[in-house]
Amino acid sequence: MHLRAVREGHFNKGQSTSGTRYLIGRYHEITLKGRNRWRFVRQLKHNLVEVFGDYSLNRIHLEGPRIIVELPRALTDQIATERAKLIFGLQNFSISHAVPLDIEAIKRQAVAIAACGVAACPERTFRVSSRRAEKRFGLTSMEIDREVGAEVSSALGLKVDLENPQMTISIEILPGVAYVSAGKITGAGGLPVGVTGRGLVLLSGGIDSPVAAYRMMRRGMRVDFVHFHSYPLVSSASRDKARELAAHLTRYQARSSLMLVPFAAAQREIVARVPRPLRVVVYRRVMLAIASELAERVGAQVLITGESLGQVASQTLENMMIIQQAARHPVLRPLIGMDKNEIVSEARRLSTFETSIQPDEDCCTLFTPAHPETHARFDQVAQAEAMLAMDQLVQQAVKSTEIVLNAFPRPTTE
């Protein structure tokens, strides 16, 4: 006899469940956190609520290594899927329909899901993949697969393909309820944003820094952004790109701040007083000094850059070591060992590439010498900086900084 007992609050006997949908998110790395797992799960739940902030999610509860969210009727499967893909910490997820623990109810729901798949893409092959966490259910996983597969094949005329199916029907047998879905969708992985601290990303508007930001968010770090520009000496294109990139990346963490720092005055001062070959190194040192001041104001513990070893003149080992000494915070470089092709590939996947390659005139190209020093010495740099009113340059830039607040899915406000 099949177990038909139903968890209180989910179903009454004979109740229809065809309209009850759940987002079932499954995590992997979080399960390795031992006694601290509750912190990661709590943050994951918080992030889910924020990313679905324009919808009122219903009950959220846990079942083993799963987070189960009852979805409101107003939320379509497409939007639910798009949003769930933004949640770091989910290894995979599915949009599932809940049914009583009864094989006939499971069959009916499986046929309904398969029929929707056929309507979208005819002549599909399929397989059934069951997982039975509730061991008191009267059928084994293999028996469920056979019975449900036979029903779907008979009802819709689909062929079974266990090796390379075009459609997978997933069934999870849990205490008191069965969940049926059209397979599992790969999630963002990593750790929930907010569990590993806060960082400030130097967002250049180029290809590299958005990828660096994504990589740190995926490791659980909440980030804000700072962009240095030379407007009005050049066009506002780099500022516009930075706004667009920051807004795009904010989807992964629901909110962020973008600090737009006018850098032209500092550059003019550096050009007037610093030897030509050392200007790029001094530009970067002043930027890090300004970023450190801003980091303290937003509570960031580290600075994050898109630097890759040897990519440009300022990214030689000697220059990076001298540049980072101007920062009061540790400098993280998540792309340090990547080559340009790898970074471009990831930028394309993140949909930041097309924005990043739009032409602009950023502050790094303004007043750049033809032959910058690639192996600067600290004594030379210190001597050059002694000619600058460094504290005054930093404080003036900070005072003139424009702050843009980004929020997803809510509208951006400034």
In a nutshell, what does this entry contain?
With 414 residues, the protein is of the alpha/beta class.
Q: Which terms summarize this structure?
A:
single chain; 414 residues; alpha/beta; VC0802-like; Rossmann fold; 2 domains; 9-stranded mixed β-sheet; 6-stranded mixed β-sheet; elongated; disordered N terminus
How would you describe this structure to a colleague?
There is one protein chain. The chain is α/β, with parallel strands linked by helices and 414 residues long. It folds into two domains: 21-186, VC0802-like (2-Layer Sandwich), CATH 3.30.2130; 198-407, 3-Layer(aba) Sandwich (Rossmann fold). 37% of the residues lie in helices and 19% in strands. The protein is built from 13 helices and 15 strands. It has helices at 37-51, 77-84, 103-120, 141-156, 208-218, 237-250, 264-273, 279-298, 317-324, 340-350, 353-356, 378-385, 390-399, and strands spanning 21-26, 60-62, 66-70, 92-99, 125-132, 159-160, 167-174, 177-181, 185-186, 198-202, 222-229, 255-262, 302-304, 331-332, 402-407. Strands 1, 2, 3, 4, 5, 6, 7, 8 and 9 form a nine-stranded mixed beta sheet that branches. α5 (208-218) packs across α10. The radius of gyration is 27 Å and the shape is elongated. Residues 1-17 have low confidence and may be disordered.
